[in-house]
Amino acid sequence: MTTALYGPDGFFTRAAEGPADHFRTSVHASPLFAGALLRLIRDVDAALGHPATLDVVDVGAGRGELLAALHALLDTDPAPGLARRVRFTGVEVAARPAGLPADISWQRYVPEHLTGMLLATEWLDNVPLDVAEVDAEGRARRVLVDPATGQERLGPDVDPADRFWLSRWWPAARPGDRIEIGWPRDVAWADAVAALRRGCALAVDYGHLRSARPALGTLTGYRQGRQVPPRPDGSTDVTAHVAVDSAAAAAGTAYRIISQRAALRALGVGGGRPPLELARTDPAAYLRALSSAGAAGELIDPAGLGAHWWLLHEVGIELRGTMLAMSELASESSTQRRTNVITGAPAEGMA
């Protein structure tokens, strides 16, 4: 999986194509997503006391689409104070894309000693991992794959580090179950969060929790906008959902896990249709509002992008009283809040 995604001719390192040619994320779906993140960035900036330099780092930046969108929003900001203080950095294995604004830096590794906002939108699902399957004797064995054909076979037993992670985060698997061993993602996320001196780290991704792990796994592929078998030959995006609670506990700091639907609604992305009266008084404004409502609906659709999880860590700050504080989710029913918002302390994990 590592070679297929990040090798010399890997899916993410090819110069000719970008990820957006193969799959659609929240960033690509609508500028409303970047607008919501900018509101969160403003909250983080305020919680930090408006520092002289505010880092905004996008890990797994693709071709810079999110940073370019945030940059454009700040360029038109009527209050330019934040724009003058923001330092944008894209972190990606691919070369710097053409046309990116010159003041967005581009590098291969997460910079250290950050003060501000660290973002990772659909990055963790592409951090390579091993897949195991439980055999008839109940042993978890690695799944080996031929890159040329995609044909799979069972290999040796998983190693002790894998077994330790499985016992904590993916227990009670039955013969035939497939398991996606998530500790490499935990390490990657913990390392990224550790680069943050003060501020907020946010991962956005498809995922699952220990209480509802998928018995058959989630490993799949995407190519040219279609879901395809996950052949690791460099031509295909190979991805698996994230064990979000495991990654949360690994970071060593308090966290909040929120559904994208709840998070975006708290940040002002509602998806409500404009009133019909507007169609009579200002037809052009009505059409714009209707288009925006459709885009918002896609972002918060619980059967689609709205099913993403937002994993939020506050490092040296508190966002209480801001848009993503739990009190801001009061519009959800108590049952929905239990589903949509999970909090945890660094030593607790998700028991």
From TrEMBL:
Keywords: Methyltransferase, Transferase
GO annotation terms (biological process): methylation
Coiled-coil ranges from the UniProt annotation: none
Superkingdom of this protein's organism: Bacteria
Pfam families the record matches: Methyltransf_28
Molecular function per GO: protein-arginine omega-N symmetric methyltransferase activity
Annotated protein name in UniProt: SAM-dependent MidA family methyltransferase
